[in-house]
Amino acid sequence: MMLLGVVLHSAQPYATWTFSIYTAFHDTAHTVVLSGLAFLIHLFRMPTFFVLAGFFGSLMWHARGTRALLQNRVKRVLLPLVLSWVALFPLIVLCAAFTVLGGPKGVAHIVQQLHSGALLAKNNLTFSQLLMQMGLVHLWFLYFLMLFYGATALLLWGVRQLPQKIKHLADNAFHQIVLQPIGVLLLAAVTWLTMVPMHPANKVTTGIEGTHAFLPPPAILLTYFVFFVFGWLLFRHKHLLSRLRDRAWLYASLGLGAAGLYAWLILHPPVAKPHLLQVAVASPAIWLLSLGIIGLAVRYFRQPTGLFQYLSEASYWVYLVHVPLTLLIPGLLIELSLPALLKFLLTCTGATLVSLLTYHYWVRSTRLGGLLNGRRLAPYAFWSSFRKFEKPAAAPIEAGSIS
C-alpha cells in the first residue's frame, strides 16, 4: 500500500483532475487515464493500509502486551514521524516551489521569491498559514496510527471490564460479519454513517476525505479507525482469512463495479444534492476493494520471492522520502514535449529508483534502518531476488512493516 503512494503522487501532476499540494502545479500534458488511476488507488489504498495496521498491531499486542506495543510504536511510528517531518517539510516546500516557478529556468526566480517572501505574499499566505495549510503533508497516516494505538489501548482496558458474555457476543458478531457475504454491507453501512459529515464528493475530493491537519476532523479519524479496529479483530479471527481468499475475485470485481458507479455519480450527478447517494455507493466500493485486495494477497503471495520481501522492507523508507521527488521530477520535465503517460512513467520510475537506492546504501544496514525495520538488515543479494525463500526462521515481530 505504501508503494502505491508513489504511483498515486506521480500521477497527480499529469491527471486531468488533481488534489492536495499537487494542485499548485499542473503540467500541460495530462490525461483522464491517470485521473482514473489516481481515483481508484485513492479509494482503497489507505483503508486497506489501516486494516493491515490493525491486524499486525493486534499480533504484537497478543504476543507482548499493551506496554510493549506502545513502546514499539513510539519508536517505529512517532519518532520517524517527527524526524521525517522536520527534515522533509522544508524540502517539500522547495521542490514544490522549483516546479511551480518553472523548473530549471526559474531557479534564480525561485531564490528571489523565497528570499523576499513574494511567493507567500502572492498567495496571500504567511509562513505560519503555509505551515497550517500543508500540515503533516503525506505523514498524516503516522499521526493517525499513534492516535489509534492510544485509543485502542484505552478500549482494551474498557473491554476487560465487560462481562465475558458480552465479549463472547461481540466475538460471534464479528465472526458472522466476515463469514457471511452480507457482512460487507453492514461494514459499508458503518462507513456510510461516518462519511456523511464529510464534504460532498467532486472531481478533486473523492472517497474518504483527506486531511493534513494537526487537528483532523473527527469524521475522518472515526472513518479510518473503523478499518483499524476491523483489522485488529481480524487477527483474533485470522482463520477467516480463508474466506477472504475464497471470495477475493468476487469482492474485487464487485468493488471495481461499485467504484465505476461512484465515479459516474460524481461526473454525472443525477440529483441536485447527490452526497448521500454517492456515499452510499462509495462505502461498499471501499470495503469490497479493500477486502478483495487482502484476499488476493492471501491467495497469491503466501510464498513471496526475495525481491518481494526486499520491497516490503524498503516500502516504509520509500514512502517517507518519495513526495519531494514526485514534486521535483515534474519540474525537471516541464519543458519537455512528452505525452502525459510517459512523463508519469519517468516520474514514478525516477522517484522509486532514487528512493530504493538511498534505502539500499544509506538506510537498510544502518541505525536508521534499525529504526524503520525494527532491526538492521543484511545487505541484499540481488542475484537471488527471484528465488523463492525457504521457510525462514522465526523473526522478531518488530522486523516487519509498521503495519
UniProtKB/TrEMBL annotation:
What sequence ranges are listed for the domain Acyltransferase? 2-359
Q: What InterPro entries does the annotation carry?
A: Acyl_transf_3_dom, Glucan_succinyl_AcylTrfase
UniProt keywords (A-Z) are: Acyltransferase, Membrane, Transferase, Transmembrane, Transmembrane helix
The answer to whether keyword Transferase applies is yes
Listed transmembrane segments:
37-56, 77-101, 137-157, 177-195, 215-236, 248-267, 279-302, 314-334, 340-362
GO terms of molecular function: acyltransferase activity
| Domain of life assignment | Bacteria
Q: Does the keyword ATP-binding apply?
A: no
**Full protein name:** Acyltransferase family protein
Protein species of origin: Hymenobacter guriensis
